[in-house]
Amino acid sequence: MLIDTHAHLNFAAFKDDFAETIKRSFDSDTWMINVGSQFSTSQKAVEIASQYKKDVYAAIGLHPIHLETQKRKEVIDEKEEFEFTSREEIFDPENYRKLAKNPKVVAIGEVGLDYFHNKDNKEKQKDVFRQQIQLAAELDLPLIVHCREANADVIEILKEAKKIYKEKLRGVIHCFSGGLPEAKEYIALDFLLGFNGIITFARDYDRVLLEIGLEHAVVETDCPYLTPPPHRGQRNEPAYVRYVAEKIAQIKGITLAEVEKATTENAKKLFNL
Hints:
- This protein has an 8-stranded parallel sheet, sandwiched between helices. The protein has a two-stranded antiparallel sheet with strand order 4-5.
- It has helices spanning about 20-25, 40-50, 95-100, 120-140, 150-165, 180-190, 200, 205-210, 240-250, 255-270, and strands at about 1-5, 30-35, 55-60, 70-75, 80-85, 105-115, 145-150, 170-175, 190-195, 215-220.
- By secondary structure, it is α/β, with parallel strands linked by helices.
């Protein structure tokens, strides 16, 4: 089995068929964590998870792009381009604290820093990130960290937080986008590295995967985005996380079963599944 540690079936792309998508995931022996990006999608993640006794979980948090209202266009490659509007939300820890009382909530996320989409509100992003780190520590939940062109600042803030919260600070760096030095920094801070479909069509992370042990990795889709071959150009979904695991096995020269076992154990331990 596999666990997709970062899915967005709580997003509008799945509003008409999330149940069918989840069934396909179960048929492929895949569990999932649906991750919120603001309060409304966090609520939706909890709502979906609550419909299943097990295998479907939720993370709740405020993504840095939702600190401002902006229309955005993003091009991943020639087969993936999308437009979306980020709606401003003022972080209210009490709303998220109440939502976290649901037993299907297993993490605070997706939180962090995004300097790709907005470099003009760095201090605001850092402040809200720190507030959500504090909330995660208070609730003794792991973090799911979004980091886009901001590794240095994310590492600095996590180091600062580690001194305060110690073993309560842990989590996963979603869609890991650094090099080997950054990977080692995150691992030293008790963070796992999340790998998704990007590794199936880009060679940027082969060295990191070769150098780190499987005990430091989890697999994810970030669906509906970052679809791996052979489904590039289509909507991504949790069942496709298998292609990510297969690519890790290929890069490291090991079996798929080894990747399945290690990444699943890592996810179960981190998220207390």
